[in-house]
Each structure stands twice: as C-alpha cells, then as structure tokens.
Design brief:
With 416 residues, the protein is mainly α. The protein is built from 18 helices and no strands. The chain has one domain: Growth Hormone, Chain: A (Up-down Bundle). Helix 2 (28-47) packs antiparallel against helix 3 (51-63) and helix 2 packs parallel to helix 8.
Length: 416
C-alpha cells in the first residue's frame, strides 16, 4: 500500500480516531483498571475490609464481562457505536456515583460494581475498536494502537488526579468527580467528532472497505480462536492482577505513598508508548512475534520486582516501564490479531467472544492476587507464577501461523 493511501486514510478519519481514543480512555476498562488500587487504603481503612474483600469487587466487575462484553459487541452491530458508546459512558458515571454513596455495606459495594459492569459495558474497547476497524485498512495496527492509547492516557493522568482527590476531598468525592469528568469529556468529544465526520461514517464503513471474514460460528471452530483465547486468559491472569495491586505492591517494596502516584503514572506513560509502538510494528511485522517480544520484556520487569526490599525508585520505575509496554500492547495485539485472523465482517461479535476470556482472567486475577498475598504474606510467589504464565502464553501465540489470505491487506507482515 502506498504512503499516500495511508496519509489519505488518516487525514479522512482522524476525527473518528480521536473520538475512539477518548472514548476508550474515559471508559470502564481504563479508569477503573488503573485507579482502583489507589482507593484500596482509604476505603479499607474506613470500612475495615480485607485486601481480598476489596479486590473481590473487581472480580465481580470483570467476570460479568463474560456477559456484557459479547452483549456490547452485538449491540454495536445492531445500534451503532454512537448510541452504545454514549450510553456506556453515562452508565460509567452512574456506577461511580453508586460507589461514592456506599454507606459501608460490602454487599452494596459488590452490587455497585455489578451495576457498573452492566451500565458501562458500551464504553469498553470492543465499541471503539469496532469503529476504527471499519475505517482503517492500510494502517489498522496503528489505528488500533492510537485508539487503545486512550487507556495509557487514563493510566498516566487518572492516578495523579485520584491521588490529589484523595488527599484533598476524600475517596467519596474523588470517585464521583472522576466519573463525572470522564463522562462529560468523552461525551463532548465523541458526540462532536463522530457526527462531524458525517452520518454515513457513524453507521457503515466507507465504500472502499469491503467487509470480509469468518462468521462467529466459523471462528469458534478454529483452533486459532481457542489458542488466542487461552493465551489471553493466561496473560490476563499474569498481568491482570498486577495493575490493581501495583500501589499496595509498591508499599510492600518500600516505596513511599507520596511516590506511588508518580510510579503508577509512569506505568501509564509506558502504556501509551506500548500501544503506539505495538501498532506501528504490527503493521510491519508478524503480530504474534510482536506480542512475544513485548511480553518477554514484562518478564524482565516482573523479575525486578522480585529483588529484596526496599527497592529504589529507579528499579520500580524500570519495572513499571517494562510492564507498561506489555500492558499497552496487550489489548492492541488481541484486537489486531482478531481482525487479521477472522476478518471484519463479524469483528465486534468475535472480539466480544475473545474479551470474555480477558474479562474472566483479569477478574479472577484481581481477587486471586489479594487472596494469595493474604495467605503467603507477600507478593513474591504470585510474581514468580506470573513469569511462568507469560512464557506459556507466548508459546501459544507463536503457534498461530500465517495470516489467512485477504486481498484487503498488505502481505508484508506474514509469519516467517
């Protein structure tokens, strides 16, 4: 494909791309995933809950994604990105408001997270990557990378605001204001930019982009679908518990609370770099190889966290960068591989099926990390287990083989 075609594609649909990035960054997966660990100390201190009890809420949130993820994909196919996305963003705010109003009931806390998972499902990356996958053909990897970099922006900025809010307003007002800011900002950008791109673009892809690919039933019969799902599940177990537990882990390793927000924000910056760079390389290299490279780096980062405490800021900063690069690449690679191996015709539904395994893995991981740390007394055993899981997941991804033939893609990035 020519450079001119690439430039024309980006110039024509940059509003779509920016709206998708902001929608992703202000959605359920981004805000909750990268800030929950900061709420651990003030919430548990006020209510007297254990680490495991607190992080079980995240397990509920993600396990409900088994239902809400595929449902969001079906709703996007039926009603379009604009309606589903805007409702999901508003539902995200409502869910945070419920958390802020909790009187100290653990049951209500869990029910609030269940409501958050349902109401905010339309704000998941399934919605926004489905949008860009319809418009970008030449540089789909870069487009998905930019879209998913919204999570990195959230990971870099949201912890700083949460740290400020907790010190200034308390955790209740911080929850409520965080949800409100995300809803207002994303709704304005998404509504303005998608509509300004023309009504045809909000409902169907541009004429040159011919929809192709497998049906969901055909995909489910493919060994690749199950290899991808198992790899996603295993990787989610390994790194899905790291982010919500990152702040407590840093405290265990001797990092002062005043420095925690900075390190978590550094993780967010690395996520942005990981998203953009992974998208760039996937357009030029075989995506499973890109995946293996990025997640091998995360093994190095996790190994740094196994060093004896107290750790220096430089050590945890390096670990945060290596983990962030892998976290940034993860969903990009999942979305890209889903699109390349199964096509665009039923992308949102098939990706919704893959998201089930991501949601289950992350949901189990967040709670499992809490239980195991309470049981063993420290994070080292689960960090060692995570390294083994990542190596196994890399092996699965590398067995996917060449991309299926498709006239709509360049063949410059086939498997070796």
């Amino acid at each position: 494909m020519s450079t001119g075609t690439t430039t024309s594609e980006v110039r024509s649909y940059w509003r779509i791309l920016l709206a998708a990035m902001i929608g992703t960054g202000c959605g359920l997966l981004s805000i909750t995933f990268y800030t929950q660990g900061l709420f651990f100390q003030p919430v548990t201190a006020e209510f007297g809950w254990t680490r495991a009890e607190f992080f079980t809420s995240y397990m509920i949130l993600m396990l409900l994604g088994v239902v809400t993820g595929p449902l969001a994909g079906k709703l996007v196919s039926r009603f379009g990105v604009l309606r589903v996305g805007l409702f999901g963003l508003f539902g995200h705010f409502l869910g945070y408001l419920l958390l802020a109003l909790n009187p100290g009931s653990l049951v209500l806390w869990y029910l609030s997270y269940a409501a958050l998972s349902i109401l905010a499902a339309g704000s998941l990356p399934i919605t926004w990557t489905a949008l860009v996958s319809q418009y970008f053909r030449v540089r789909l990897g870069l487009a998905i990378g930019i879209t998913m970099s919204g999570t990195g922006v959230a990971a870099a900025l949201a912890p700083l605001y949460v740290r400020f809010g907790l010190d200034t307003f308390g955790w209740r007002w911080t929850y409520a204001s965080l949800g409100l800011i995300a809803w207002v900002l994303a709704s304005i950008v998404v509504l303005s930019f998608i509509r300004s791109s023309g009504p045809a673009q909000t409902r169907r892809p541009p004429p040159p982009a011919v929809l192709d690919g497998l049906s969901p039933r055909q995909a489910y019969r493919s060994y690749r679908f199950w290899f991808i799902n198992l790899a996603v599940f295993v990787i989610s177990l390994a790194v899905g518990g790291l982010v919500p537990n990152f702040a407590p882990l840093l405290a265990e390793k001797g990092i002062a609370a005043s420095d925690t927000g900075t390190v978590v924000s550094l993780l967010g910056v690395a996520i942005i770099v990981g998203r953009l760079s992974a998208g760039y390389f996937m357009d030029r290299m075989w995506a499973p190889l890109v995946c293996a490279i990025y997640f091998s780096g995360s093994v190095v980062g996790i190994a740094c966290l196994l060093m004896p405490a107290p750790l220096s800021l430089g050590t945890v900063g390096f670990a945060a960068v290596m983990a962030g690069l892998a976290l940034g690449a993860e969903l990009d690679i999942i979305a890209y591989i889903t699109r390349r191996y199964f096509g665009s015709k039923h992308y949102s539904e098939i990706f919704g099926g893959v998201y089930v395994f991501f949601a289950v893995g992350v949901g189990i991981a967040a709670s499992a990390w809490g239980f195991l740390v309470d049981w063993t007394g420290n994070y080292d055993p689960i960090l060692v287990a995570s390294i083994g899981l990542i190596v196994f997941a890399n092996a699965l991804i590398l067995m996917l083989g060449r991309y299926p033939e498709s006239a709509s893609f360049s063949r410059s990035a086939e498997a070796p």
